[in-house]
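seq as requested:
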Amino acid sequence: MKKYLMPFFLQVMILIFAAHSVTAQQSGVLNLGNQRELFVDQYLIQKMDGVKQQMHHPVNEGKVLAFSEPWEGHFSAYCTIIKDIGLYRLYYRGVREAGHDGAGNEVTCYAESTDGINWVKPELGLYEVNGTKKNNVILANAAPVTHNFSPFIDKNPDAKIGERFKAIGGIKRGGLKAFISADGIHWKQLQEKSIITEGDFDSQNVPFWSESEKKYVCYIRTGAKVGDKRYRSVSRTTSTDFINWTDPEPMTFGDVPYDHLYTQQTSPYYRAPQIYLAIGARFMPGRQVISDDQAAALNVNPKYYKDCSDAIFMSTRGGTKYDRTFLESFIRPGIGLENWVSRSNYPVLNVVQTSPREMSVYVNESYAQPTAHIKRYSMRIDGFASLQAGLKGGEVITRPFVFSGSELELNYSTSAAGEIRVEIQDEQGNPIPGFTLNDSQIIIGNEIKRLVSWKGSEDVSALSGKIVKLRIAMKDANLYSLKFN
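struct tokens:
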């Protein structure tokens, strides 16, 4: 048999490609693929000159759901919203009077909406509560799971049809139990044994299937000790089968002061699932705003007005570190003393899109009061944070990366006098002919999706797979995200 000899030129090309790949790996080159990148951290940024990262605040759109049923009430909390094929599903704890964590009167309630704005509480007839089955309760007589029941749609491609929805719930005594459902309404316990037992759990514990890590991830309530102070904090654990979990590892926050994180609400952003956003509740114990007389006038439970809280914004890309680029409040408590009580202003888990241009976040407000409710806040799509330049202008240089695709998409806004231009550079920072700043179309406007062009062409396929950088020149403009398609 004749021995096959690879052509010499092919051998050389393979060696060159292998050397190029090793160089890319050793130099820390990012692989963007065709993932969307947001500017919620410094992941993509190498240098900024005359540009800053700006956090944006959601707009108050008003109350969308009151905890008004007899089995709901003042202490309803730990809410989750899921967008599911044209239907928005809302899950939350129902309980009228405060008791100990995991009390038998706690139930899990359900509401639904076709637009994320107008909600109904269906009469499901599953459990008798307060003498009637005409209620929206999906889980009862299941304490302590109903204290903080936290569901998600399982996006694991190997997930069974009958387990399309999964959830966890429980407290330190007994640990976290696993539940499954085919339709998100009828639930059953997966197994008797708890799946996670190491943690404090006295808050909402958040599981999901990570599309980027290819495993289940769960962020749980734990404690952290800094000096002689203890803080409510977060740990992370992972699993390949949702039953067997790793030992929890404490999350870190970089070189910033610790906050009491009552909830963390860490979940993949639906347009960039490799980025987990954490819109959590920052709790300020002992920071009393309202007086005893004001609390009595509001009819606040006497145990729940000597602290206050707001919503903060963090992010992570896996691992055990949160990025806290933005330390200021993401959502401040609203006007009115009812918003300045203990354990109010707690964000609902998940961000959902509610129009072609808008996404919504939701907040649990007026806690421990007869007026307890959920309020909706709106945001521009991808609009958590942006690169921002003033009228004097500025530039951003990205870290080197490789991408796949044939076009570059921006989510941006400028003033009438502002603009954005984009240059593609090689790994050393040299402008690539045909893709220089002078070749770039001047981009003016305000769009969720705009393709960049150079000399009238949007095609960047010739650079796909090669190590490049972007030089982004901005003037009176915001850049919210970019993506190669």
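The radius of gyration is 25 Å.
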